[in-house]
Design brief:
The protein is an alpha+beta fold. It has 17 helices and 25 strands. The relative contact order is 0.04. Bound molecules: adenosine-5'-diphosphate (ADP).
Length: 641
């Protein structure tokens, strides 16, 4: 019994009835019929018929046109055209449209059933073909997926596995498996001998692999290496690769790194006659790319490893201490010297906060001073009394690098020198006072001529200079020795005003403007007022001294972040960048100083000592030709907090 569904779309009621209820249903088909287009279309989509019988002239259009559209949208549908009146032209057009059969009035049951049967057979054939095609396509697709998966696996190995042997073996294995080859090999060029050797292999004897050597000249792999072009061969008589190595078919592809071939990946068949295809060649080429990447990665890794271990050796052997911390002040690296200086035990984990590892206030304070990306320096005294000069270098991608040099010896020398200077200065002061006294008396005891008076003035000036120098030296010695430890709560602005008052006349004489600018309330600080005044005076004195006539000097003060800022700004000659790091050193005079500018080179050294004695900081910002500004930051007195 047939089970196919037939959908009839005819306008003639009598014929429709005959087909539906008579012939077709009796023959066992499931029959649906429609008289108008709307009903036909909804039945077409809801019941999915196998065969459609259409009339050539429909109330709402031409049957053949509808048939054409249906064939386009439902290619699996078998369509029979029924003509009320036969015409040869219509029959030919019907065939050209692609309908499976053509019937015309008067319709005989026998013809109708034969046509429907043929239409059903057409469908069955189509279905069978479709199933077969799909199976074929699925098989091809599955094979492709397997190939891609294999490639993917090798790709993953290249990125995840560091062992080059393992990656290259995986590459050769995949090449053999994906091409169904009997053997596979990866040949690399030995730079020293200029020969190819087997770096990885599959299905070759171990001894053969170990002793394999092939010249580049006049060999197939050599040809691929030299031309950079792959090779796919299939020969009826076996081709010789080397003695006792004859193959029927092969694929060789070059391993290229930046357009330079470094080796060859190959698969071959020695016994079977199985041919390789272009598809196989593409697969082996992809695998060769992976192998080239793996080899290059391994080379880069080895190079960076060598560099890293060189650097590590340098850091370990270096006599200076080196500590590297990240931006969160966690330990990244500490070399042997620094470990020994700070008693860092090897067990201390990297990435541990540095203040849990190093318990030295100087060190911790120093690393916390980082404000800009500029390197800065400081001194660190460790528990056993050694003193280190530390340079802190901020590196944006890393954090902070702290290098430390042992300057204990220099410190001791410095202290001996200071003691000596201070004793000598002290002993010189009394005779100098006597000289000054007696020089003043000369004019009182008798007549002197104008030349003698000039000589006396010069002696007085020189003695005054030496006295200034000695006073500065003694001051510095006292401050450095910490003799000024007595401090009191002071309003800094009052001191600044006193300084301004003291220098107003001198500024007026030099036609310089000297101003004070105080922003908001400036809190009190704990300090030695005499030293604070000396500190400000030295800075203002320099500004007036170095700024030419008509210049402008501003003394500023403000408070910020629990700190008091004092700044002296001038529009004088500025300080060359190369001199700036040293101007706070004793006796240092920058190259901007004109020969006639008197000075000892101790003023800023005294300023710096006073600032440090008050737990503050000082720095200079200066642009040659535009001016300088010296900024001091001091902590607010505790009672203000
Ligand atoms: P000096 O006795 O030479 O003034 P200082 O220690 O006070 O010694 O200053 C050191 C050097 O810094 C000076 O010799 C000068 O070159 C430079 N300097 C200091 N202040 C200024 C300034 N306001 N303008 C330009 N240069 C300055």
């Amino acid at each position: 019994m047939p089970s196919e569904k037939i959908l009839i779309y005819l306008s003639d009621q009598a014929v429709r009835d005959k087909l539906e209820n008579g012939t077709l249903r009796t023959a066992g088909y499931q029959v649906l019929s429609a008289e108008v287009r709307g009903a036909f279309e909804s039945m077409l989509s809801s019941s999915q018929p196998d065969v459609v019988i259409l009339e050539d002239v429909l109330p709402d259009g031409i049957g053949l046109e509808l048939a054409g559209k249906l064939i386009e949208s439902h290619p699996q549908l078998a369509i029979i055209l029924y003509a009320k009146q036969h015409s040869d032209v219509l029959a030919v057009n019907a065939l050209r449209t692609g309908i499976v059969d053509y019937l015309y009035s008067p319709l005989k049951s026998k013809d109708l059933l034969a046509a429907v049967r043929r239409a059903c057979e057409h469908n069955t054939r189509l279905e069978r073909w479709l199933r077969l095609e799909t199976r074929r396509d699925t098989k091809t697709l599955r094979r492709r997926i397997n190939q891609l998966e294999a490639l993917n696996q090798v790709g993953r190995k290249v990125t995840a596995v560091l062992d080059l042997d393992e990656v290259l073996s995986a590459v050769v294995d995949a090449a053999v498996e994906l091409t169904n080859a009997e053997e596979g090999s990866l040949l690399l060029l030995d730079q020293n001998s200029g020969e190819l050797y087997m770096r990885a292999a599959r299905n070759f004897q171990e001894e053969f692999v170990r002793t394999f050597r092939l010249p580049v000249q006049d060999t197939l792999p050599g040809q691929v290496l030299q031309t950079g072009k792959p090779l796919l061969l299939h020969e009826t008589t076996p081709k010789k690769i080397k003695t006792a190595y004859l193959v029927h078919s092969l694929i060789y592809v070059p391993l290229q790194i930046q357009d330079k071939a470094i080796g060859v990946l190959g698969v071959d068949n020695r016994h079977g006659r199985h041919k390789f295809t272009e598809d196989h060649l593409t697969l082996v080429s992809s695998l060769a790319d992976y192998a080239a990447i793996a080899i290059e990665n391994a080379r880069l890794y080895a190079t960076s490893e060598i560099e890293r271990s060189k650097l590590e050796t340098i850091l370990t052997k270096i006599k200076d201490g080196v500590i590297v911390i990240d931006h969160d002040h966690r330990l990244i690296l500490a070399n042997q010297t620094s470990r020994e200086v700070f008693d860092i035990v090897t067990g201390n984990k990297f990435a541990q906060p540095i203040n849990e590892i190093i318990h030295n206030d100087d060190f911790i304070n120093l690393i916390q001073k980082e404000t800009t990306s500029q390197p800065y320096r400081g001194e660190i005294t460790v528990q056993d009394g050694r003193v280190f000069h530390a340079q802190v270098t901020p590196i944006p991608e890393v954090g902070l690098v702290i290098t430390m040099q042992d300057i204990t010896h220099l410190k001791e020398l410095d202290s001996i020198k200071n003691d000596f200077v201070s004793i000598v200065s002290h002993d010189l002061r009394s005779p100098l006072t006597a000289i000054l006294g007696y020089v003043e008396l000369i004019s009182r005891v008798g007549e002197i001529n104008s030349q003698q008076e000039e000589f006396i003035n010069r002696v007085q000036l020189s003695v005054q200079n030496i006295t200034d120098l000695i006073n500065d030296l003694l001051d510095l010695g006292r401050i450095e020795a910490g003799f000024d430890s007595q401090k009191e709560i002071v309003a800094p602005v009052a001191i600044l005003e006193l300084v301004i008052e003291g220098y107003m006349a001198r500024a007026f004489d030099h036609q310089q403007s000297l101003e004070i600018e105080v922003a908001g309330h400036v809190p009190t600080i704990l300090c030695n007022p005499i030293r604070l005044r000396q500190m400000v005076e030295n800075m203002v004195d320099n500004a007036l001294k170095y700024t030419p006539q008509g210049g402008k000097i501003i003394l500023r003060s403000w408070a910020e972040d629990q700190q008091v800022f004092i700044q002296v700004q001038d529009n004088g000659p500025g300080i060359p960048a190369a001199d700036q790091p040293y101007i706070f050193d004793k006796f240092y005079r920058a190259r901007n100083v004109a020969g006639n500018n008197l000075g000892t080179g101790l003023g800023l050294a005294i300023v710096k000592s006073i600032v440090e004695n008050h737990n503050g900081r000082i720095w200079v910002d200066s642009i040659p030709g535009q001016g300088s500004s010296f900024t001091v930051v001091l902590p607010i007195a505790d009672q203000e907090l």
